[in-house]
Each structure stands twice: as C-alpha cells, then as structure tokens.
Design brief:
It contains 4 helices and 8 strands. The chain is α+β, with helices and mostly antiparallel strands. It has a single domain, classed as ph1033 like fold. Strand 3 and strand 4 form a beta hairpin. It binds a DNA duplex through loops.
DNA sequence: GCCAACGTTGGC
DNA sequence: GCCAACGTTGGC
C-alpha cells in the first residue's frame, strides 16, 4: 500500500464551498469539472483512497484554506463531460475513451477560522507550495507532508 | 512545429 | 474592474 499523499483542491465558494461539501446528504461530494490536463493527471494517476485534501477557496473576498477533506474513491470518469447541459460538457470526449476524471471526497474537519492566503504567504514552510506560485491555475495540486503539517498547525493556532 | 490570438483564472 | 500569467486553439 502506497504512503498517504496530500493534495490541495481549489474551488470558488460561489460554485462549490466547503459548506456545500458538509451539506452533502451522502456525506461525500464529486470533485467534477476539472478541465486541465495536468490537474486531470494528478486526479487520475496519483490519488488514492485515504489521501488528505486541503480545501481552498479562491476568487472570493478572503481566499485561503477552510478545512480538511479526504479522498474516498478511486478516480473514475467525470460524468459531466458527457452532459450537454453541464457547463463542463466536452463534446470531443468519448464514452469509451473519457478525457476527464474525478474523485469523491468527504469532509473531515472545518477549521474554526480560515487560514488566509495572505498568512500562508508569510509562512516559511510554504515558500515552495505550488498553489502560492505566481500564476498558478491548477485546481488540484500535490502538497508535501511538511506543507500539510504546517498548514494544519497554523490553521489551528488562529 | 511555431506562435499570435484568445479565453480563463484568480489575486488585488 | 484591472491585469498578469497561463492553457488552448488554429493558421501557416
């Protein structure tokens, strides 16, 4: 069994927030709509059940990490790519050769306070964190154990 | 295979 | 709303 991996998943809260995940009747949410090949590859090839997820809110008044989730499914084809009514519809994707993949996640813990992006930028442990890099647009990025521990420690100290 | 144009992301 | 950075597209 592979060692546990860590990820940061980014979402616009107006679109899908951590509270939306908490409110899922089934207790789990689909991480669908990823339409970037690099992020797709992370999801499809590198995630495992049990991996940790930092849930990040972007494009909002206060961006930052709002809570922890975990991956609860293997990667499987994202059904929204075949749905003409979905904003994430991809007419070029084929049923027998899906282009886009997703995983399911479940909320583990909501921080009492958001760990703001501005604060993360001040943390020496996070200088190499991908999500903090200028121009980063990936909605799924790997996180090191060191970064994972630092984020959680800092978030719980607020 | 190059590269300009365009659309999108996302912080501020 | 602005703008920088990036990915994708399509003409050649």
């Amino acid at each position: 069994m592979a060692a546990r991996s860590y990820w940061l998943f980014k979402s616009e809260p107006d679109c899908y927030s951590f509270d939306d995940l908490l409110n899922e009747p089934s207790g789990r949410g689909h991480w669908d709509g990823v339409r970037n090949y690099q992020a797709r590859n992370f999801l499809r090839d590198r995630t495992s059940i049990g991996d940790g997820v930092l849930f990040y809110h972007s494009s909002c008044p206060e961006p930052g990490v709002v809570g922890i989730a975990k991956i609860v499914s293997e990667a499987y084809p994202d059904h929204t790519q075949f749905d003409p009514n979905s904003e994430a519809y991809d007419p070029k994707s084929k049923q027998d050769d899906p282009r886009w993949w997703m995983v399911d996640i479940a909320a583990e813990e909501k921080f009492l306070k958001i760990l703001p992006l501005a604060r993360m930028r001040q943390m020496p442990e996070l200088v190499s964190m991908i999500v903090l890099r200028k121009g980063n647009m990936l909605s799924v990025t790997p996180v090191t154990k060191k970064e994972w521990d630092a984020v959680i420690r800092e978030a719980k100290s607020l």
